[in-house]
Structures are given as C-alpha cells and as structure tokens.
Design a protein that fits this description.
- The protein has no helices and 11 strands.
- It is mostly beta strands.
- Strand 4 and strand 5 form a beta hairpin.
- The protein starts with a strand and ends with a strand.
C-alpha cells in the first residue's frame, strides 16, 4: 500500500508564504511524476503544479505561475510546493498526487495519477 502524506498547510495573510510537503511511503514503488491539486468549497478539484521524477520538468497552472514552485527530493520520495504571494483565492484543500505509471503528458489531469494524499487545508485571509 502506497501512502502520500501532506503537511505544511495553515492560515496565512494575503501576501504571505507557505511550504507544503508530501512524502510517499509504504510499498516500495517508483513514482514517475508527482503533482498538487486543490479544491475550494463548491468548486471542482483543479490542477496546481506537477513535476516529472526523471529530468525534473515542472508544470504549473496559469493562476500560480510565478508565485508557486514545485520541487522534489528523489532520495526521500518527497515533493514540495513553495507558495509565495498568496491570495485569498488560493484558499483550498491541497492534495498531493503520485503517478506510478510510466508515461509522459497529462500532468494536469487528475485521472493520470494513481495515488492521492488526504489533503491539507490552506487558508489565506485578506
């Protein structure tokens, strides 16, 4: 069983920063990509950012480009999301996702990921 455990969420004022972490544990498995999605109340889950494990290419939603940075620690099977210049509209539950299948593309699609964390709340006050 593969588990993804997020941490680092919380309450922050607009303009502030938070750093989310997601660690994969359990059955040994190779991740080919990991990503972050978020879901605000009453809205559908949306893509935030993703990173390929091989090569480290990164992908971002337009709404977070220039403000968020995704990175990884291969040795620890951990992915991070550094969030700067936070806005109230960034408020959501943030989910970590992992892809155990080997293929390229579709990094912004939730069905392209095999494993999900339980989510961590990020609240940005105005």
């Amino acid at each position: 069983q593969v588990q993804l455990v997020e941490s680092g969420g919380g309450l922050v004022q607009a303009g502030g920063s938070l750093r989310l972490s997601c660690a994969a544990s359990g059955r040994t498995i190779k991740m080919y990509a990991m990503g972050w999605f978020r879901q605000a109340p009453g809205k559908e889950r949306e893509f935030v950012a993703a990173i390929r494990w091989i090569g480290g290419s990164t992908y971002y939603a337009d709404s977070v480009k220039g403000r968020f940075t995704i990175s990884r620690d291969n040795a620890k099977n951990t992915v991070f999301l550094q969030m700067n210049s936070l806005k109230p509209e960034d408020t959501a539950v943030y989910y970590c996702a992992g892809r155990g299948r080997f293929y390229f593309g579709d990094y912004d699609l939730s069905h392209a990921y095999d494993y999900w964390g339980q989510g961590t709340q990020v609240t940005v006050s105005s």
